[in-house]
Predict the 3D structure of the following.
Amino acid sequence: MLIYLRVLRESFIFAINALKNNKLRTFLSLLGVTIGIFSIIAVLAAVDSLKKEIEGSISALDNSTVILMRFSFGPTDVPRWKREQFPDMSYEEYQHLKRTLPDAEAVSFGLGVPSASIKYQEVTTAGVDIGAVTSEYYDIEAMELSNGRFFNESESVSGAPVIILGSEIKDNLFGDSNPIGKELRLYGQRVTVIGVLEKQGQSLMGSSRDGQAFVPANFARRIFGTKKGTVYPQIVLKPKPDVDYDEFIATIEQQMRNVRGIKPGDDNNFFVNQIKGFTDFIDNITGQLNVIGLVISGFSLLVGGFGIANIMFVSVKERTNLIGIQKSLGAKNKFILSQFLFEAVILAVIGGLVGLFLVWIVSLVASQFTGDFEFVLSPFNIFIGTLVSAIIGLISGIIPAISASKLDPVEAIRTGM
């Protein structure tokens, strides 16, 4: 064990000397490894950051949440002409599912109403994203209120003119004053503020609730009606804990087929969108992005590997005399082999660490220029970068190390003189 520690120490010293004595040659040789590791880890970090941001954007909804719509969240085999004939979800279907699904913890109805301007006295905030939902939505989505309350079931059913504001909308309209009980103008109607959402922060997907406001779905139904292609209704369901998920999905489908009178053998005229399926789809896409990025970055590593091999062949040639002396003094082939392999690995790891440092710098700079989107260089990616560097060094140094270990001591001394 001690001899290998000594080999490692000597190899580290040789590697550092190679960096010092042949700065330009070593720099050019390690540049390939540095660029390769930078490319690979940058791709991994970017994809991981994107995945984290997307998952964070939908994390408010439980992974088991189901959304019924006439649209599909992902790819589907149903032709477009057929999808366009699908009817919208109805309020009556929401009521039916709410009554007939004992395994549902909460069932909510929502409308995709147009964004609007909200006015308070002389102050107006334009382009506010309005969420028209029933009271159960508060139990489905992980909402937190900084002030006031969410509308209750009675207000939801009656379509009461009440509103919950996102923190950004509240700040724009009221500043630091308390908005609870104040009247606003929305869609030409008077609405009363009863709650303010906790500040969330902007996300890459634009799903932050800070710029949103929520009103009862029936309030919006009175204004917009339910004409197809205007408000895009949806039914959101959350199963109870420990419920068999596949059975829950099957029950939803069967209940919807019954209420719509779909005959056995006929296709569904609705989509059961599963958040879990959507996250799996995201995992698949990010996985493909990783593979593509790794393949492209692999070419840079290949060049880097040739650079390491080149510097090791030169190192063997320059130290031929020293190798001969070591072998004549009793150094075994595996000692010489280990010495050059360690040196190759150390050189490659140095190049890799420089690449990781550059990724870290770029991630800090990029995070400053992208607002709330944060590029993350995870410890796992750092480990992967270091491991890949070591493997590249090992592969690149194996042939020069073998050639060094097989040198005849007499010939090596004579050649090096």
Q: What stands out?
A: Residues 257 and 265 are 11 Å apart (CA to CA). The longest strand covers residues 123-133.
